[in-house]
Amino acid sequence: MKLRFLLLACALAFGPLAAQAQAGIYFNPIVSRVSNSTPDSGPFAFLGQNGTSGIFGGVEFGGYYDFIHQPKFDAGIDFHDAIQHGNSASLNSFVMGARIAAHPMAFGLKPYAMVSAGGGRTSSPLNPVHATKLEVVGTVGLDKRLNRHIDWRLVEIGYGSLTTVNSSLYGGSTPVPAARLLNFVTGFVLHVP
């Protein structure tokens, strides 16, 4: 019974915010450069035997929900899942975080930034074992408004870190630090007023 009153109170408190909220969904291609300063030579090497970098590609899908509206910017949350493959290895990232976006400026351009955290699941090309570890990503991007419902995501660049599956997680003698991720995304965003 108390939970119902709490939910009702939250709905009444956040109702005016939700009435002005804007949401967007996207399904776009992603390319990432994954690099590490220490090569892994064991049977769980994510970047292959003695590899220190690799290019991964796939799709990213997700959405955002802006519930704070100010004269010059909107803010809210963003969540997305990226499924990528490269060199017979796989990387699946699910992250959520805070998003801030400027209102459309000259030529309909809308810059935005995000800070996200979540889980990254990786598997090696040499072994089917996988590992899920904390992933942290900072992202900046630029959208161009095409019409009321569609934005063109000109570019999105993300930089983050993730401890990938590696031999040191399974008893290897050489410690392998977290890998660095450099992500590039382009495509379209469907937003709902």
Tell me briefly what this model is.
The protein is mainly β. The protein is about 10% helix and about 65% strand.
Sequence-ordered SSE layout with sheet pairings:
Layout: H1 2-20, E1 22-40, E2 51-69, E3 73-86, E4 89-102, E5 109-123, E6 130-145, E7 150-162, E8 179-192
Antiparallel strand pairs: 1-2, 1-8, 2-3, 3-4, 4-5, 5-6, 6-7, 7-8
Over the alpha carbons, how many angstroms does the gyration radius reach? Answer: 20 Å
CATH class: Mainly Beta
Could you give the order of the helices and strands? HEEEEEEEE
Which fold name is given in CATH as the topology? Answer: Porin
The N- to C-terminal Cα distance equals 34 Å
Which regions are unreliable across 5 or more consecutive residues at pLDDT < 50? 1-20
What's the structural domain tally? 1
Count the strands?
A: 8
- Strand percentage, roughly? over 45%
Strand order of the largest sheet: 1-2-3-4-5-6-7-8
Largest sheet: 8 strands, antiparallel, barrel
Shape: elongated
